[in-house]
UniProtKB/TrEMBL annotation:
Source organism, top-level taxon: Archaea
Protein name, entry field: DUF35 domain-containing protein
SUPFAM superfamilies documented for this protein: Nucleic acid-binding proteins
Length: 102
């Protein structure tokens, strides 16, 4: 899948349906609403911290991206609920996506 190629290079983009313009998450090649093909929407996307917890020195946050879908992301400094963040790092590790926000 093209999304996985991009994220493995450290590039975050959002799959969007080319027909109905719905954001498709988790990323798949076809829209789950109208079955249209998806393409990757690139940008400097913002998210809002919904929840967080701490383990050792790391914080882990639930981040709602573009008022549409949620991801789990790591953060190095103490977050605040409703704080606006951007993805600062992303990639794949052993077949799983990872995200860091700041």
């Amino acid at each position: 899948m093209i999304f996985e190629e991009e994220i493995s290079k450290g590039n975050f983009s959002i799959p969007e349906c080319t027909i109905c313009k719905k954001i498709v998450w988790p990323p798949i090649e076809f829209c789950d609403t109208c079955m249209g093909k998806t393409s990757l929407k690139k940008g400097d996307f913002q998210g809002k911290i919904i929840e967080f917890s701490k383990q050792n020195e790391d914080y882990f946050c639930i981040v709602e991206i573009e008022d549409s879908f949620r991801i789990m992301a790591k953060m190095s400094k103490e977050p605040e609920i409703d704080q606006i963040v951007k993805i600062s790092k992303c990639g794949m590790n052993e077949g799983n996506y990872f995200f860091e926000v700041s």
